[in-house]
Amino acid sequence: MTALNRRRYSLLKFLALLSQIRWYNVLLLLIGQYLAALFVFEPSNSWQSTLSDTGTHLTIWSSAFLLVFGFLINSFYDLETDTINRPKQTAFERLVSQSTSLRIAVLALIVGLLMAYTVSWRGLLFYGFYAFLLWFYSHKVRNIPLVGHFSAAIIGLLPFFGISVYHQYLSLHTLAFGGLIGLALFSRELLKDLLMVKGDTVMGKSTAASEFGGDQVRLALIISSGIAWIPAFFTQQWFGFYAQLGMLLMLVLLSVANTLTLGAKSLRGLRWAHLCYKVVLVIGILTIPFL
């Protein structure tokens, strides 16, 4: 193998690793926490004051490294299912061997916990519990219908709770907004059941789609998007104009995504709905500075 080919192969392996750790989700988590720290939790401080606080950076990056650990562990447990549901992407990700992925996962776990410990021993306890939940979700909880979906939504919100506790900030309007994000995460997990039903069925995994049927899952998604409008209506006075606009866009896209899911006759329609959920989460992150 020539030097040029080795460099290309190394680049491909790096890209495969990025795919395994779901870099898009990790990046959203980082951006969301920094926006929350700068605009919500410490609004009276200058940017320089917040950005010069070492504890803020360590807390945020601790959760990011632990999320990398979580995605790599999840990839390990879901290898056979992913091979059926996403054969091309899984084959690409297998450029990085399982042993290498596990070593990187352990390294990310250690770095994340060390960062948390540097902040405080309470931080170590909290993020140690977060790391345990990430592992336990992949190992046991993920395949318990509804319980796994609720768990995924809660785990997705925990890093934001961690950074809010560090800044000693908690309010009703941020809890209400977090509830909307949590509902979007829960609904996306239901949608993923429909997307992954083939592999889950072949592997004998218990999911909402296999237990209750695809039509019932679609109905649950429609109901959840309808329910989301109710608390949003009654809490709108807690938010400014731009926050209300962001939440309105999220609610509309949630409704569009679930309507697409209801009418989807193939995986292509479900993928469009899943794309809508990704956009919902991006809008949610961009709405944070206006809370």
Explained architecture:
36% of the residues are buried. The longest helix is centred in the first third of the chain and has 24 residues. The protein is globular. It is mainly alpha-helical and 291 residues long. The mean pLDDT is 88. It has 2 domains: 149 residues, Tetracycline Repressor, domain 2; 121 residues. Helix 10 packs antiparallel against helix 13. The protein is built from 15 helices and no strands. It starts with a helix and ends with a helix.
Keywords, separated by commas or semicolons:
291 residues; mainly alpha; Tetracycline Repressor, domain 2; 0% strand
Strand/helix succession: HHHHHHHHHHHHHHH
Number of strands: 0
Number of domains: 2
Kindly, what is the distance between the CA atoms of the first and last residues, rounded to a whole number of angstroms?
54 Å
Architecture of the largest domain, according to CATH? Orthogonal Bundle
* Mass-distribution shape: globular
**Low-confidence parts, pLDDT < 50 over ≥5 residues?**
none
What's the helical proportion of residues?
over 70%
> Taking Cα atoms only, what radius of gyration do you get, to the nearest Å?
20 Å
Mean pLDDT: 88
CATH C-level name of the largest domain? Mainly Alpha
Summarize it.
This protein is 83% helix and 0% strand.
Structural topology:
Blueprint: H1 3-20, H2 23-41, H3 47-51, H4 54-77, H5 79-85, H6 87-93, H7 98-119, H8 121-139, H9 147-166, H10 172-195, H11 197-202, H12 208-212, H13 214-234, H14 241-263, H15 267-287
